[in-house]
Amino acid sequence: MGLPQRQPGPSVLLLLVGALIWPSSCVSLELIPYTPQITAWDLEGKVTATTFSLEQPRCVLDGHAGIANTIWLVVAFSNASRDFQNPQTRAEIPAFPRLLTDGHYMTLPLSLDQLPCEDPEGGSRDVPLLRVGSDPGCLADLHQPPYCNSPLPSPGPYRVKFLLMDARGSPQAETRWSDPIALHQGKAPASIDTWPGRRSGDMIIITSILCSLAGLLLLAFLAASTACFSSLWWPEEAPEQLRIGSFMGKRYMTHHIPPSEAPTLPVGCEPGLDPLPSLSP
Question: Keyword set for this entry (predicted)?
Answer without folding.
Answer: Membrane, Signal, Transmembrane, Transmembrane helix
